[in-house]
Amino acid sequence: MIQTGKPIRWGILACGGIATKFADDLVHAKNGYLSAVSSRDLGRAKAFAANYGADVKAYGSYEEMLASGEIDVVYIASPHGLHYEHTMLCLEAGVHVLCEKAFAINSKQVNAMIAKAREKKLFLMEALWTRFHPSVAKLQEIIASGLIGDIKHVVADFGFKAEYDEEARWFNPHLTGGSLLDIGIYPLFISKLLLGQPLEMKATGVMAPSGVDMNCSIATKYASGATASLFSTFAAQTDTTCTVYGTLGKIYMHPRFHETKGMTLTIYDGAETVFETERKGWGYSYEADAVQEDLWAGLTENTWMTHQFSQELMGLLDEIRAQIGLTYPNE
């Protein structure tokens, strides 16, 4: 257990674009800071570390950083096809883990990661940053108030046009490409957060020449009688919004909904209210704060982003992939 209030020393494993955003936002974290970064390329690690001050250590191997004694928790920023390998590496080294979404490739890997964390009595959480955004808290507050009545339907999409390149992360099956695991996870997440586990789910996909999904469309039905329409694509720019329809009104989360600061509440008698919430930096510091609070409390699991939630979410992703015929060579 880390002494309450003691500054949390963060390490970053893999120095890609998402790592840059997370590192940028640690300046907003409450009493946490970037202590070390690692890459298989020492030059890349040094160049990354140089952006965050002379005290940030750079390592040319993940193992070296994990054994350094310089970090309390590691943020895994590698492609999701490597999350299982890298999470297990960190846990075996005795280091707490915040692992970027998607948590892994499949449920078998997620279950093994969680089992290892519990065996080692270490903290492990999927870094689905949207869960900790103030906008999501506001969304839940409005729904809980009863202003829109009972939820009957959720519509959420995420899409952008990506130039096709089979070697690029988005389209390469060996790098676990496809729209579903990369961006389709956000519409699926928000529907699960608001409506729970679906009773029925039907998915259809359009595949890229490389065999991963270019488009993925999902329809779900819930015990409450609600339904959801979810969509992701690399073929076109979509609105990337979420609308929650209730019996008395609706909530429209402004684009891009997974990181938005704004939403519009419409009551069906005509009243309309626009809300704007806080977003510090890119928006990643909120999940970092949550991890830090858990580490100070001696917890090994977050109460908002539980192991069970991640297991159930991955189970849904597994089922969708089975329905659209998406498999990966490294699973």
Topology:
Layout (H helix, E strand, L loop, with lengths): L7 E6 L3 H9 L6 E7 L3 H9 L6 E3 L2 H5 L6 E4 L6 H10 L3 E5 L6 H14 L3 E4 L6 H12 L5 E9 L19 H17 L4 E8 L5 E9 L5 E7 L8 E5 L2 E5 L8 E6 L4 E5 L8 H12 L10 H18 L7
Parallel strand pairs: 1-2, 1-4, 2-3, 4-5, 5-6, 7-10
Antiparallel strand pairs: 7-11, 8-9, 9-10, 11-12, 12-13, 13-14
Helix pairs in contact: 4-5, 5-9, 7-9
InterPro entries: Gfo/Idh/MocA-like_OxRdtase_N (IPR000683), Gfo/Idh/MocA_domain (IPR050984), GFO_IDH_MocA-like_dom (IPR055170), NAD(P)-bd_dom_sf (IPR036291)
Protein name: Gfo/Idh/MocA family oxidoreductase
Pfam family, one: GFO_IDH_MocA_C3
Give a summary of the structure in a few sentences.
With 331 residues, the chain is of the alpha/beta class.
Overall description:
Pfam families: GFO_IDH_MocA, GFO_IDH_MocA_C3. Residues 8-125 form the Gfo/Idh/MocA-like oxidoreductase N-terminal domain. It comes from Aquirufa regiilacus. Keywords: Oxidoreductase. The chain is an alpha/beta fold. It folds into two domains: 8-129, Rossmann fold, CATH 3.40.50; 134-278 and 314-324, Dihydrodipicolinate Reductase, domain 2 (2-Layer Sandwich), CATH 3.30.360.10. Helices cover 32% and strands 25% of the residues. It has nine helices and 14 strands. The protein has helices spanning 17-25, 42-50, 62-66, 83-92, 107-120, 134-145, 179-195, 285-296, 307-324; strands at residues 8-13, 32-38, 57-59, 73-76, 96-100, 124-127, 151-159, 200-207, 213-221, 227-233, 242-246, 249-253, 262-267, 272-276. β9 (213-221) and β10 form a beta hairpin. It starts with 7 loop residues before the first strand and ends in a 7-residue tail after the last helix.
